[in-house]
User: Fold these one by one.
Assistant:
Number 1:
Amino acid sequence: MRDIRFLKQLVLVNGLVPLALLALDGYRHNLGANPHEFATRATGVLALLFLLLSLAVTPVRKLLGQPWLAPLRRLTGLLGFFYGGLHLLTYVWFDKAFRIGAITADVARRPFIMVGMTSFLLLVPLALSSNVRVIRWLGGRRWNRLHRLAYLTAAGGAMHYYLLVKADTRVPLAFAGVLAVLLGYRALNRFLPRYTERKPARAPGKPAGAVGP
Amino acid sequence: MLIQRPPDLKSSEITDEKAYFSRRQFLRGAALVTTSLGTAWVYRQFTSTGGVSKAGEKIAGVVAPAQPPAPGPAEALTSLQDVTHYNNFYEFSTDKRQVAPRASHFVSSPWTVEVGGLAHKPRTFDLDDLRRLSPPEERIYRHRCVEGWSMVIPWIGFPLSRVLDQVQPMGSARYVAFETLADPGQMPNIRSSVLEWPYVEGLRLDEARHPLTLLASGLYGATLPPQNGAPLRLVVPWKYGFKGIKSIIRIHLVETLPRTTWNRSAPGEYGFYSNVNPQVDHPRWSQRMEQRIGESSQRETLMFNGYADQVAGLYAGMDLKANF
């Protein structure tokens, strides 16, 4: 079923399920003893997860020879940006109570906050240039170059997580490992596309990416 | 020559356009619902709270301490549910919400504590010996975690000095070293190398003998639940929570500074003293404020966690930035 419009709906709805559950748990006082910390952790992990999913779209579509999956990259990337924004909001609101002085002091003195903040700020131009009209205005090559920032933001997000934990670095390292695989694929793809790509199979008489039932 | 076969399907059998589309709508709806339920299930696997754990046994004969160093009237007790379901006990899990469910089958009776080292009368106590040693007191203390959250907990216990007096420390003893049980059969996370096991902690002898230093066996009037360090733990209210070693099996009087687990794990972040000090930040985060569990906004962290009047004298003339 090569129905990209429906697939996008499916990803969007599933992507918002965690937010709905988080809001429901918050409303029912079911976030445990430290709801602020929980909301910050959950949105942070979700942001990182969707950024990695976004970087996984290209390898998956090339390996499977399914170019029609490409639009999922933008959608998952925007979901990552959305959860990243919520993550930042929980920090600014719950942890710092909107005290600008405390926030700037934190950013200046704490490497993990600085790395996280920078990663989020780098996502802003990517989100702003995800609109079709902006893409046309920028032109494909410049857009591509700009969007290489996605690698940097994902790496920054994983590092931010790693720097935060006290001793159990297994989850942040798992994120970093997945990211390394996704970046490794791109390096391999550049030099040995024969092994990393499959020609898209086209049904005769049908243009590529055609929508079929 | 073109051989024409009759079509397999008669035109009357072609599904009606409306029915075809409604079938498609139905499949799409089903896909949306089932994948969403699947996503919700996965989310729940990572965020389950672990429910409510069973309460401990009531401790009889609890007496009020002679001079209760209770927190101020504006500080309410943290709820029993929060005290028992938001725990750092890495032997069970590094997820504070998962410690209670993973520790629920922990067996803490029978139990013995070996108290020895540089002592004239080293001795192994069982729980009954300890009960006979001193009547249980209720002590309401602030509890400040190095991570930046805090609670107010009604502990049951008695001063550690009572046990130390029993074994009679030698003149050469300057520190007290503590050790937690390390039982991979009961403590699932011991197989990970997150920290070095067994968990060890230490105090200077004068800190250990301070009247605020508590050997706790209960909270909220009942025996300690496993996740809070059953059957016996240390409570040092002016220090960060990780100094309060749990499920103690060994207390040794020693001459030299004992090793402590977190200090070995990250020497630049966790010092031997680890006194609560809002002026000395953790290298990665500020210690100026704390999130009191159950409250919506943050509080300012107090010097020595609010026990400066009682304990500041222990550190007179010491540079607390260097001895963090």
Number 2:
Amino acid sequence: MTKPLEVAGLGYDLPGRGKGERRKTRPLVRDVSFTVAAGETLVLLGRSGSGKTTTLKLINRLLEPTSGEVRLAGERAADLPVTRLRRRIGYVIQDVGLFPHFTVERNVGLVPQLEGWPPARIAARGRELLALVGLDPDTFMKRYPHELSGGQRQRVGVARALAADPPLLLLDEPFGALDPITRVELQREFAALKGRLGKGMVFVTHDVREGLLLGTHIGLMLQGSLAFLGTPDEFRRSDHPECRAFMAAA
Amino acid sequence: MQGIYGGGMSLLAFYSRNSQEVLGLVGQHLYLVAISTGAAIVVGVPLGILLTRRPTWRGPVLGVANVFQTVPSLALFGFLIPLPFIGGIGATTAIVALVLYALLPIVRNTYEGVAGVDPAVREAGRGMGMTDWQLLTQVEFPLGFGVILAGVRVATVVSIGTATIAAAIGAGGLGVYIFRGVAVVDDTLILAGALPAALMALAADGLLGVAERRFAWRGK
């Protein structure tokens, strides 16, 4: 069975300014390889600027890789039209990015709407997903994002990412902007939810406790490279200095 | 005191005696403003959107639009008269000049409204597979619409005022009374042109202001 995500030798050089000889590029991501099977969650852990978010954006081609290959359910991501690729990958970001002029219902139904689903099916799917992320559909469907709390917004953000039932979910510090209590609440619920979903997930965080709670695998990024890749238990036992540094912070 | 009282009375008397002419000039004035603002919207909004897609064009385009704003209106009308096709005496020349004035606020606000959309919203839209056109029409334009309307409001109010000067090149409008009043030193005549123009500007400002607040998604 093909895996939701296979990444091989992925690299990204930031194009430099200037011309000719002076045009130097700066590598942000170097030779990153990993696979994510259905039901697995790879947590990309690392300090700010270590290339975690860049790696995520290379997967859904918000940035175009300068080297290496990404395969989504066996298909080369570079060969797919970019909008089709992205509609098959759920994407959750820290700032949520709900559309302020859309109701919760329309926000959640965005990708199905882009894909041309019939309205009745979009509405049914919306209700199903809101219930899944712990929001009462009757209460929340017609609300606007500004009428929600931060935690409720991110629940809607997760529901929106799941709308078209993508095989892969990319999450970029989804709980990073929440207060500590709401964050722990959402982490627990998400841990339970992801088991039921059986999707491949890549989860970016700099919070090692969050990473160990949610990851089936931990990828530790250091200066654009994958310094460590293994299970949470292997991560705890690793004597790599950067792993030790993160464990000391836990 | 008596002069102002007398002026007010004679203004009403003036309107009742010349109602046909007054209505005609009000109509001409509205025509100048509506055609020029409409044309400025048709040109300015797509131009503003284009600038969000070609950021390097922003400086030059806004710079040129800015220059038109700095030219005194009477001088701009004068410069346009000798030009072929768009020049000459009459409404066409006036409309061209009014369009040039209205462009800057509309282009600038369209750019700022569309470019000012929360980057997280744009990233989410792109990340979920919206095409650039879908992002523009479903997200950026609706969210920027309040700011674009603010530009249209400024352009309209400025146009109503500037259109009074169009009478100097034979384009008609309420400026006819103002210029005539200045020529014969008759306050009532000046007021007969200035008052409806001011009311028109206030009405446009109020109405478009209401519409603008209706579409203000920013800050929610």
Number 3:
Amino acid sequence: MELLPFFEWAETSFLGYIGKTYGGVYATFGQSIHLMSLAVLGGSVLVTDLRLLGVIMRDVPSEVVADQAHKWFRIALGFILATGIFMAAAVAQRMYYNDFFWAKMSALLVGIIFVFAIKRPLLKGNHADIQPWLLKLVAVASILIWFSVAATGRWIGFS
Amino acid sequence: MSDKKSLTLLQKIAAASSFGIIVAGIVYWSIQVQSVMELLEMAYG
């Protein structure tokens, strides 16, 4: 499927026009909220995964940490997707030809599927019923995938 | 003890997908680091 026409359309769409024309809107509603949301998402991921690894908050049950952090994860993900679409629309054609944009999108897709189809259903139950090595394996994979989303995202700006 | 329990289907999928993500991540970032090192060598010798 050829995606270039979609990216060309996105750049000429209303969102693309606003982002291109008004730098202040792009910087405030786009970049700043995107980065703050990324910080919240990264924080929720790290809190959950470092707790699963037994590094932090050992006095709090991991079920409680995972439940609380997941609520913030969902909120942050919503803001990230909304502001990300807005920002990408303004420079859609440049993004289309950027390898790191596609690397980030791939990592993001894998991350979202991993969280909602595997990690969350797994962590919903009693963690005592899950073998400790599996909890740690899931935590390491989760940190790696969201690190990849963040790192490839930053790399877009330098490529 | 949970150690003696066999894995549920979800746990098996979680283990396999986590392992796959870790392997893919290591391979991807190794290639990226190697690529950057080659670029730096070409630029600065």
Number 4:
Amino acid sequence: MSLIVLSGLGVGLVFGYALQRGRFCMNSATRDSVLLRDYTLLKAVGVAILVEMIGFALLDVTGIAATAPKPFFWGANLLGSFTFGVGMVLAGACASGLTYRTGEGMVSAMVAAAGLAIGAFYTAGGFMNPIAKTLQESTIIKTAEGGSLTLANILGVPYYLLALGIAIVAIVAWVLLAKPFSLENAAARTKAAKAKGASHGWGWMTTGIVIGLIGIVAFPLSAAAGRNYPLGITDGWIGLVKGIFLGETFGWGTMLIIGIILGALVAALINREFKFRVPTSGVLFQVFIGGLLMGFGAVCSGGCNIGHTLSGLPQLSIGSIVATLAIVAGAWLTSHLIFNVFRKSPAA
Amino acid sequence: MEKTITATKTLDVCGMICPYPDMDTLATLKKMGKGEILEVILDYPLSLERIPRNLTKQGHKLLGTERIDGPKHRMFIEAYGLK
């Protein structure tokens, strides 16, 4: 294995550490915003996307790594990502969430990950492949030159200018519109929690900045290994299945997954948060089905929440923008049905 | 943590997936009378931070959190009395 492929393991270790400390899960981020009116994780996701937008623009303009936006196939993006959104609420985690929680010792996350890997494997090359492939081929919309549709090429402006412009406008608007952010209060709360000996992770600002920076560093390293894309989760899990059962060599994406699990394990051990936690068999069944739906959805749509939302949105890919909206729609509908309609009283 | 706290009710949500610890805690609190104390046993780090953030929106009060072992914590919450 070459050194550059091994860099995936290094990026994964740092990414896994940050995911665990920041409790960074886009399923929670999306769902909490409607279910609990809690925007903490959503803010972390927003910060990470803005940091990457600036970083990718700089990589692009300096020629270190040219953007590689995902294609826009509206039918596959809508169906795949909506299914992914439904699946992640059932699984109780997004693709990055179930990967880092596997390292934390959560058995539910391991079972969901197995579902995701199996669903993705059979959609990428197995019996589910014709559905995804037909949908992708029949609804793809390309640029005149045959490239992926992005906001930049639709408007006819250079990517780096548009990305920097959007990021700056968004940051200024956020700062002006947000309630005064009190670092003092956040620090005091963390200190109070720690004084009582309770666990406490990173705040949303730290989490967002660190994860955004990891995404920027990941891009040129992954591209050098022949995988021309920033962070992604699903391709790594497919690679893990192929490596274990078909004897194929692990690529950069799979080394990233292994790194995330180990990085999260280290973070959890250091902070006394590692433990094998097993839910009821009913919950295990539910998360497995959720994982299968996520695996199918991610491959059908060409990416999971990390591939599309964290890595694709900052590249202004139309496919990733549509996919993100479909993930959110699927997640909101499913959370509403589960928690507000079917399940009004606690089971415990 | 004051040793004198006695819980009216105990809720164990160990091993539960996201966001059941939060939803079950809030749903249980909703059914409790004013001043009654709920003890929640949980081992999910995200909920450990998220439950305190969201309790206050419904008027409940976090009395304290203590680590039992590893990620397993005990949390005492005083119900606002939404019943």
